[in-house]
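re the bet — no i am not wrong, look at it urself. input seq straight from the record:
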Amino acid sequence: MARRPIALVTAVVLLVEAPAIVGLNAIMARFVEVQSMSLDGLDPDHMVTGTWALGIGSGAALALCSLVAALAGIRDRRPGRFGRGLLVGCAVVHGVLGAVAVGLIGWHAFAFLMAVVGLVVLTLVMYGKEGAAPEPSKAPEPAEA
């Protein structure tokens, strides 16, 4: 089946995306720091720290999602309950970010985020319930006269 390569591609895409998110938040933190921006009188240093924390937390979450997808692909088994929940959360966040990105960044960012959503959801669907597969039917026995 194609589910193993799909899970491994999902893992690679999420793993590549993790440092990109950390880098993006680092750039935003630098902008806040250099311009001493504040939001309703908040300390700019706290905003810089919060931006870094969000970036590192998001990167770690993406790396963990990547690990879950990689383990599913390597073992060729569906993720456990926690792993499935993590991947569902990852898909939802990417969907919301895609909706925001189409207005702020453009259609290319939207297309990339929707491709990631598709990969994550496809990974989840391909590893559906293992007991759901129909058992092979036995040949009907001839009727005795």
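see?? DSSP finds four helices and no strands in the chain. told u. also The mean pLDDT is 88. so pay up
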